[in-house]
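Q: Can someone sanity-check these two? First one:
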Amino acid sequence: PKLRRGGALTMPPRVETGRREPSLLRAEDLLAPESFERLRPRLRPAIAGLRAARRCRIRDDLTISFENRETVLWHVHEVLRIEGRTTAHQIDEEVRRYDCLVPRAGELRATLMVDGGDRDASDRLSRLVASRSGVLSLVVGDKHALADCVEPEPWIDSPIRYVRFSVSSQGIEPLDFLTHAVSLRLHVPVQTSTAVPSAVREALATDLNVNALLEQEVAYSQQEAAE
């Protein structure tokens, strides 16, 4: 990923590697450019609130922003607006590019940004996140969910990484975020642990419940179509 004009973030073109997970974003989910332009001033404060409730600083040079469907859709709209991309092909390309950030059932997905500190140390940390799982973990009570990179082809020199935490596979339920201590634990170069604020914990619990309902609805619709 890299910075685009106006501060929007972009990923490199998707490179197909192995089996691709089902997409959760479609071009039909987007507003027409004129509609987005008209609604943008009213939507922007609400999206800013969603983002603030999902952002946590892990240490001075590392920030994580948990994503949900609304924040990803907003980002796609903003990229299209800033870049003036309006053709069907361009819209489909951006939708495919950012679909990897939409959380699936039982998952949390996030944008991880290295945004300060020594340049060499920052580069090493960013490359570690991209290359292997286990650099960062989400700790809920006594359960751990490791972060792994979901970028199809991570850029070597980038301060931005997209990651997921498969929380359900570790037995972590939405209610656990409200009833247990929650922290983010960075394991390199030395272990650093940061408590996740209560507002973020509440937002993540809500996201997990919503994602599960959306997945159930998609499965039900597919079953109906097959019958």
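And here is the second, same format, sequence then tokens:
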Amino acid sequence: MIISLVSRIAGVVTLFISLAGTMIAGEVPRTQVIARVGRFSITAGDLLDSFEFGPAFVRRVSNPLRTHLEFMIDERLLALEADRGHLDTTAFVRTRTAAINEDLTVDQLYAAEVLSTIHLSDAAIDTAVEKSRVQISLRWLFAPERGGAERLARLLQRGASFDSLMASDTTGDGPEGRTLATTLLGLESNTPGFARSIASLRQHQVSAPLRGPDGFYIVRLDRVWRDPLETESGYAHARDNAARTLREARTNEMADQYAGSLMKMAHPVMKAQGFNILRGWLALKGLSHDERLKWKIPSTFMTEAGPRPIADAGEFLREPLVTFGGRTLSVRDYLEWFQLRQFQLKRSSLSAFNASVKQTVWRLVRDRLLSEEAYRRGLDRRVEVRQESAKWEAKLLYLACCAQFQRSIRVPDSLVLNEYRSHRKRYRDADGQPVSFAQVRDELRRDLADRMESTLIFRTLRQLKVSTPVTVEEAAVAALGAGLLPDNRSIDVIVYKPGGTFPRVAFPTIDQRWQTFP
């Protein structure tokens, strides 16, 4: 999609900062501790945020907020169990805790350097409201190389139908993935450079080929119309939305500028040999054999002992990849950073693949510069960072505990076969005919493992609730949940933080597994 043409550096930092404030809900301050589980505390704000961004099934039960809190307590009890088992020292917990702490610290840097400088005038907001009323519908053709885009442009000039070219274009995301309906404000906010490129287009006009990060785009502006604002309340709502959108756009733009200034001062330089080794390693792990042959990406490099496969020689990973500000990062440094993030690299063409690899290298440098500056200022010692890091630590310890339970479970073949024989009538195909044991064996094994894990968790929690002190301020919880009724129409929505230094779910909340917990 065209939205992917711009990278949003600040992510949801604005949301993070606003939710860290001192909102009052049900007359209970967000900072008030409403539950303690061993060394972990849960504030009113923690509960409200976890509930707001948590799974929908809790909203369908009676007393939803109190039920949600009970699951939060259960997860922290299991986190304490992981603590006792020294799972806090595992690579899974250590690396992710450090990455999230780094990201939260950089959020504070953005707050200090970017958010504090954002000021919107009434005139700017009024202009944004007018742009929010302008609705735009557009489509585009995509070509990974300039030559392909120019060929499409020539066909259009000779009278070829845009619709037919779009239907025959198999290099993009399909016709549905090459269509966008938005507002002028939304387009300018999410993809400012792209919006400027098509600003002169009139309705039904087609653009010249436009360069994007992964190839070239030819855009057709299908329709432009203006929405009416008929009521005073409608205008007030539109003004609030426009101000929010404009503030986020200004934040992202200034965050981009700030990160760019750090990059410019550091003057990063990518090393050709290191990049070729990195590209070969990523291709070996992420591309098919045919793609590597087609694009002629080597998997063997020369050493003093002669040519060796890249996968067999650890010395390749020590090769310098990029230098900046008197420092050097190796291929191994990149791979350790990349493994946690698992960015999706472009595969539409060789040039797109190369470009996406380079973009991630520059992002590594940017992340390192931002985190170094944030830690140099001591922003990791701020209360907001410590509190948010503690919540994530509890979540990661809980996940590590569950993973250990899963590793300890063994489902013998005899038990699987006995389950099949005991409930043979349940296992039918779409026509109602019996299915063989071989057809359902793996499914049965997974179901039994899930049941055994749930039983293990239930027994562990029962023991922990006897041995671990848990206190709940019931009056405060009741005040927070006053008027909150079950909602059978609620749906699951995941809030994702794509920017910063560690893309992740924006807020830790309870696991979906509790929906089927006994």
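A (reply): Looked at the second one. Residues 1-24 have pLDDT under 50 and may be disordered. DSSP finds 18 helices and 16 strands in the chain.
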